[in-house]
C-alpha cells in the first residue's frame, strides 16, 4: 500500500505539471487554435497518469525531477522519529559514548507525529478514492432509475421531464435525453451537438477522466484540469456541429444554447449536458466563429511535442557511472539500515531494480532483505527469475560492487552488501558481496590506508571523491568484491584484526600476557583488543603508542571500533576511571580532537532535519547508539563542553533545550544564544533527544586550589583540589583519587531527572577511587522542614544504620555495608523552602584517612 501510494504521488505531481503546461498553451491559443486540437492536449495528462514509471521514456531535456517534492516530503515524514519520552525509551542496544542507564517507566501512549500521520496517509487516500467511486456509481444508478420512463422519440433519442438541458448518458449504448422544454425548432441543433459527443467518444472519455480524478482526488490542479476538459469537450462539439454553418444556423444554435442552459446543475460525473458548461462563453464563440488558423494548429502540435519531451519523460540515467550525482545521493542518506523506506529509496536511486536486467535475462522480480537481527548488519538484493538465472559478467559484478560501496556510505551502520539471483524453483545463488572493511582503501602510493568510506559519510564532497575512486577501481578491475557462496566472514575482510585467537575480550593486561618492559610492540600488527588492553593498563610511551593506533583505526572504521569497545562495557577501567568502554571512547575522541586542535576546545556545527546549531568550547564528540524499537535506532552526538560553552541556534523552531528538571526546559527559537551550564542535558523534540551534552569534569574546568588536613596521623598535608559550584552552593573537592559519579560514570542506583538520587532526591555524588564505600554527597531536598529532613535521612541511611540527632539537628550513626563497619553522617543547610543535605559515608577503618578527607571537604561547604 505504501509503495502504491508513493507511486500515485509521483505520477500525480508529474501529471499536475503537464496539466499546468496544457493550461498555459490553452490560454495563449484558445482564440486561434481548433478547440478539437486543444481538447486532445489533455490526453498528455491522462497518458502520464496511466503510464507506469518503469515504462517512462528517458530524455536529456526532461524537466521532471528525479523525485517529486511531494514524494520527498512524504519520505521525510516517514523517517521522522516517533516521539517517545526518554524515560520510556528502551536502553541503547550498543553503547558508543557516555550511555546512560534508563529507569523503566510506564509506557506512554504514542503521540500523533508526522511519522504516525504518514502511516495513515495511504488509507486516507483509499477512503477518498472510495468516496469518489461511490459517488460516480450512485449518480449513474440514480439517473438510470430516474430515466426509466423517458419517452422514446427516435433511434437513441428520448424525451425526459426531470432536467432542463439535453445530455448524453451511457457508455456502451449511449442515449440522448432531451427535456420537454426543447422546442421543435431547437431540436435539430441539440441533436447535432449531442451526436458530435457520441462520434467523438466523449461519453466514454468523461467518465474515464473522472475515474482518473478519483484516484488523484487530492490534487487540486487535476480538479481544475477536469473542469477545463469538460469545457473543451463542449467547445469542440460546438465547433464540429457548426462546421460549414452559415450565420443563420449559428444564430439558431446560439438560441438553442441559451434556452437549454442547465438549471439546476447536472451530476458532474456522467452526463454530457448541452447547456450546462460555460454557456455565455460558448454563445460568444458560436456567434464570432472563425475557422482555426493553420499556424495555430502547427503551434498546438509543437506544444504537444515539447510538453511530451520535457514533462512526459524522466531524466536520462548515466549508464556508465551512477544513476544520480553525489549531491542527490547524499540527500537520501540514513543512519540506520533498518529504515525500510529510506534504504529502499537509496537502492532505487542507485538503480538496483534495473540492475537485474541483462541481455539474456527474462522477466524477474526485485526485492531487498534487511538483516538487522545481529551485527554486522547488511542488505541483500534479490533478483527472482521466471526462468533460468542469467550468467553474470565480471563487468556487471563490478557495477554491483561499486553501487554496494556507495550504499554503505549512505547507510551509516551497514557493514555488508550482497546480491543474489533466485531461479524459478526458488533456489538462491549468492552472486557477490562487498564489506565495509574493504571500503578503507590503500592510497595511490600504497603508503597507508585512506578512510574514503568514512569521508564519504561526512559530506557531499567526500562522497563524490569516493564515487570517483570507486569508478576508477571498477574500470581498472581493482575494486574488491567476493564471488559465489564461499563468502569470507566479516572479520576476515577487516584491514586489521579485531581480536586474537582465543581472545578473552578483557581490559586486563595480564589476561593477554602483556609484559611492560623497555621494548615497545609493533602497534600496527596488534589486534584491536590488545591495543585496548595496552592503553587501559599503562601510561607514558605504551599508552601514547596504543592510543595513536587506536585513534587511526577509529578514524578508519568507527563502527567496527565502537562495536568491539561496546563488548567491554561493564568492565571497570583498571586505572579507576569508571566504565572501561566509556573511558576508551572518551579518550579516543579527546585524542583525535587534540591532534587537530592542540588540545584546545573547538566550535562545531550540527544539522539535522529542521535543526541547525553551533556549539562552542567543544573538547570531544562521541556517539551514543539509541534504539527506539526493533526497526529503528540511530547514533546521536554527545558533545563534551567546557566552561563558557554556548549554544547558537541558527534554525531550531519547535525544538527544546532540556534541563535536568522539566522546569528548566527552554523552547528554542531561531537566533537564540544560550550559555550551556550543567543544568542542560541535551536538546531535541517531543522528549526525544537529537543531541546530548556532557561537561568537562569540575576538576578540569573549575577553580584550582589545595585542601589541607591531617592524613593518617602524618600531620597536616596539602593535596590538589578544585572548587565545585553547584546549584545554590559551593564545595571544595579533592582532585586526586576522587571522581564525581553520574549516570555515565559509575552511578547505578536510582536517578531523578537524569541525576543520581538518594532516597528520591537529586544529588551530586563524589566517590573515592581508593575505596568505593567512601562517598561525599550534596542532596537537594527542596522545600522541607528540619523534622521532615531528619525523617528523610533515616531512609537515606537505610535500615542498617541507627541514627542519632546532634545539638545542631544533624543526623549520624554507624552500621554495616555487608561485613564492613561503616559511619554515616548528614548535615543540613539552608531554609525550609530550599534545604540541602551534605552526607559523608566511609568505613570505620578509614576514619583517620578518608574520614578526615571527607570532613575537610564537607567543612568547605557554603551556600551561594
What features would you describe in this structure?
With about 850 residues, the protein is α+β, with helices and mostly antiparallel strands. α1 (about 1-30) packs antiparallel against α10 (about 295-310), α3 packs across α4 and α14 packs across α15 (about 450-460).
Radius of gyration: 38 Å
The outline comes out as elongated
Beta strand %: 15-25%
* End-to-end C-alpha gap: 62 Å
**Which structural class is indicated by helix and strand composition?**
alpha+beta
Q: What's the helical proportion of residues? A: 25-40%
Number of strands: 36
- What can be said about the biggest beta sheet? 9 strands, mixed
The parts where pLDDT drops under 50 for at least 5 residues are 80-112, 267-275, 319-323, 442-448
Mean pLDDT: 80
Question: Can you lay out the helices and strands and say which pair or pack?
Answer:
Layout: H1 2-29, H2 35-50, E1 58-59, H3 69-79, H4 114-146, E2 151-154, E3 157-160, E4 167-169, E5 175-179, H5 187-199, H6 202-215, H7 220-241, H8 247-259, E6 272-273, H9 279-287, H10 294-311, E7 314-315, H11 326-330, H12 340-349, H13 352-355, E8 364-371, E9 378-385, H14 394-410, E10 416-422, E11 428-435, E12 441-442, E13 449-450, H15 452-458, H16 460-476, E14 482-483, H17 528-536, H18 540-556, H19 558-567, H20 580-597, E15 602-608, E16 611-629, E17 632-641, E18 646-651, E19 656-659, E20 666-667, E21 673-675, E22 680-685, E23 688-695, H21 698-701, E24 703-710, E25 716-726, E26 729-734, E27 738-741, E28 751-752, E29 755-758, E30 761-768, E31 775-782, H22 786-797, E32 802-805, E33 811-817, E34 820-831, E35 834-843, H23 847-858, E36 862-863
Parallel strand pairs: 1-7, 3-5, 9-10, 17-23
Antiparallel strand pairs: 2-3, 4-5, 4-6, 8-9, 10-11, 11-14, 12-13, 15-16, 16-17, 16-18, 18-21, 19-20, 19-22, 22-23, 24-25, 25-26, 26-36, 27-30, 28-29, 29-30, 30-31, 31-35, 32-33, 33-34, 34-35
Helix pairs in contact: 1-2, 1-3, 1-7, 1-10, 2-7, 2-10, 3-4, 4-6, 5-7, 6-7, 8-9, 14-15, 14-16, 15-16, 17-18, 18-19, 18-20, 19-20
Amino acid at each position: 500500500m505504501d509503495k502504491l501510494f508513493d507511486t500515485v504521488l509521483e505520477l500525480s505531481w508529474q501529471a499536475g505539471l503537464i496539466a499546468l503546461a496544457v493550461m498555459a498553451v490553452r490560454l495563449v491559443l484558445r482564440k486561434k487554435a481548433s478547440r478539437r486540437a486543444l481538447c486532445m492536449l489533455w490526453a498528455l495528462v491522462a497518458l502520464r497518469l496511466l503510464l507506469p514509471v518503469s515504462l517512462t521514456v528517458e530524455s536529456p531535456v526532461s524537466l521532471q525531477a528525479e523525485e517529486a517534492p511531494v514524494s520527498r516530503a512524504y519520505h521525510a515524514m516517514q523517517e521522522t522519529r516517533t516521539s517517545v519520552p526518554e524515560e520510556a525509551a528502551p536502553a541503547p542496544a550498543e553503547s558508543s559514548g557516555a550511555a546512560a542507564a534508563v529507569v523503566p517507566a510506564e509506557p506512554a501512549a504514542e503521540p500523533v507525529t508526522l511519522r504516525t500521520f504518514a502511516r495513515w496517509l495511504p488509507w486516507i487516500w483509499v477512503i477518498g478514492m472510495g468516496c469518489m467511486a461511490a459517488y460516480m456509481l450512485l449518480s449513474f444508478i440514480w439517473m438510470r432509475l430516474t430515466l426509466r420512463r423517458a419517452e422514446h422519440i427516435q433511434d437513441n433519442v428520448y424525451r425526459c421531464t426531470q432536467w432542463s438541458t439535453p445530455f448524453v448518458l451511457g457508455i456502451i449504448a449511449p442515449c440522448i435525453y432531451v427535456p420537454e422544454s426543447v422546442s421543435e425548432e431547437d431540436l435539430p441543433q441539440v441533436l447535432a451537438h449531442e451526436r458530435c459527443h457520441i462520434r467523438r467518444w466523449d461519453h466514454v472519455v468523461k467518465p474515464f477522466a473522472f475515474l482518473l480524478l478519483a484516484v488523484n482526488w487530492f490534487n487540486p490542479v487535476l480538479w481544475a484540469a477536469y473542469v477545463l476538459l469538460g469545457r473543451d469537450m463542449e467547445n469542440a462539439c460546438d465547433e464540429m456541429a457548426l462546421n460549414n454553418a452559415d450565420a443563420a444556423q449559428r444564430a439558431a444554435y446560439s438560441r438553442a444554447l441559451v434556452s437549454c442552459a442547465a438549471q439546476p446543475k447536472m451530476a458532474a460525473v456522467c452526463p454530457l449536458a448541452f447547456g450546462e458548461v460555460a454557456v455565455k462563453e460558448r454563445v460568444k464563440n458560436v456567434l464570432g466563429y472563425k475557422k482555426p488558423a493553420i499556424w495555430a494548429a502547427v503551434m498546438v502540435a509543437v506544444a504537444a511535442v515539447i510538453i511530451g519531451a520535457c514533462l512526459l519523460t524522466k531524466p536520462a540515467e548515466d549508464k556508465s557511472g551512477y544513476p544520480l550525482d553525489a549531491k542527490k545521493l547524499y540527500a537520501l542518506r540514513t543512519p540506520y539500515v533498518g529504515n525500510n523506506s529510506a534504504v529502499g529509496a537509496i537502492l532505487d536511486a542507485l538503480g538496483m531494480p534495473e540492475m537485474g536486467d541483462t541481455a539474456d535475462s527474462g522477466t524477474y522480480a526485485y526485492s531487498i532483505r534487511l538483516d538487522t537481527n545481529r551485527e554486522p548488519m547488511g542488505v541483500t538484493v534479490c533478483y527472482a527469475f521466471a526462468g533460468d538465472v542469467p550468467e553474470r559478467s565480471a563487468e556487471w559484478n563490478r557495477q554491483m560492487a561499486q553501487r554496494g560501496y556507495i550504499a554503505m556510505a549512505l547507510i551509516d551502520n551497514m557493514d555488508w552488501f550482497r546480491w543474489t539471483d533466485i531461479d524459478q524453483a526458488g533456489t538462491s545463488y549468492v552472486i557477490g558481496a562487498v564489506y565495509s572493511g574493504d571500503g578503507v582503501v590503500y592510497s595511490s602510493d600504497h603508503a597507508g590506508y585512506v578512510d574514503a568510506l568514512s569521508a564519504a559519510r561526512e559530506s557531499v564532497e567526500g562522497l563524490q571523491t569516493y564515487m570517483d575512486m570507486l569508478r576508477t577501481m571498477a574500470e581498472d578491475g581493482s575494486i574488491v568484491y567476493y564471488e559465489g557462496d564461499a563468502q569470507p566472514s566479516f572479520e576476515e575482510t577487516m584491514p586489521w584484526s579485531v581480536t586474537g585467537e582465543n581472545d578473552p575480550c578483557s581490559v586486563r593486561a595480564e589476561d593477554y600476557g602483556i609484559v611492560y618492559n623497555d621494548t615497545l610492540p609493533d602497534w600496527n600488527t596488534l589486534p584491536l583488543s590488545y591495543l585496548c588492553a595496552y592503553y587501559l593498563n599503562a601510561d607514558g610511551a605504551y599508552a601514547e603508542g596504543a592510543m595513536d593506533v587506536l585513534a587511526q583505526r577509529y578514524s578508519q572504521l568507527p563502527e567496527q571500533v565502537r562495536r568491539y569497545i561496546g563488548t567491554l562495557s561493564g568492565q571497570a577501567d583498571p586505572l579507576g576511571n569508571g566504565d572501561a568502554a566509556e573511558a576508551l571512547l572518551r579518550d579516543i575522541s579527546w585524542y583525535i580532537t587534540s591532534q587537530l586542535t592542540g588540545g584546545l576546545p573547538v566550535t562545531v556545527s550540527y544539522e539535522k532535519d529542521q535543526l541547525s546549531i553551533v556549539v562552542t568550547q567543544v573538547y570531544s564528540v562521541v556517539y551514543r547508539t539509541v534504539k527506539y524499537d526493533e526497526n529503528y535506532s540511530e547514533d546521536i552526538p554527545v558533545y563534551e563542553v567546557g566552561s563558557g560553552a554556548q549554544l547558537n541556534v541558527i534554525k531550531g523552531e519547535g525544538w527544546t533545550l532540556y534541563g535536568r528538571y522539566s522546569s528548566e526546559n527552554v523552547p528554542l527559537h531561531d537566533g537564540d544564544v544560550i550559555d550551556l551550564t550543567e543544568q542542560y542535558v541535551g536538546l531535541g523534540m517531543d522528549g526525544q533527544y537529537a543531541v546530548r551534552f556532557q561537561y568537562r569534569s569540575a576538576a578540569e574546568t573549575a577553580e584550582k586550589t589545595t585542601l589541607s588536613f591531617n592524613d593518617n596521623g602524618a600531620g597536616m598535608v596539602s593535596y590538589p583540589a578544585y572548587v565545585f559550584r553547584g546549584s545554590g552552593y559551593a564545595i571544595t573537592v579533592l582532585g586526586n583519587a576522587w571522581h564525581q559519579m553520574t549516570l555515565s560514570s559509575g552511578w547505578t542506583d536510582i536517578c531523578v531527572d537524569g541525576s543520581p538520587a538518594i532516597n528520591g532526591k537529586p544529588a551530586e555524588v563524589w566517590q573515592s577511587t581508593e575505596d568505593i564505600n567512601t562517598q561525599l554527597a550534596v542532596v537537594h531536598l527542596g522545600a522541607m522542614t528540619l523534622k521532615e529532613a531528619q525523617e528523610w535521612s533515616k531512609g537515606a541511611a537505610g535500615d542498617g544504620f541507627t541514627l542519632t540527632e546532634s545539638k545542631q539537628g544533624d543526623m549520624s550513626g554507624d552500621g554495616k555495608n555487608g561485613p564492613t563497619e561503616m559511619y554515616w553522617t548528614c548535615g543540613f543547610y539552608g531554609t525550609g523552602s530550599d534545604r540541602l543535605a551534605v552526607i559523608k559515608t566511609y568505613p570505620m577503618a578509614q576514619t583517620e584517612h578518608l574520614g578526615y578527607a571527607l570532613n575537610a571537604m564537607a567543612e568547605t561547604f557554603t551556600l551561594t
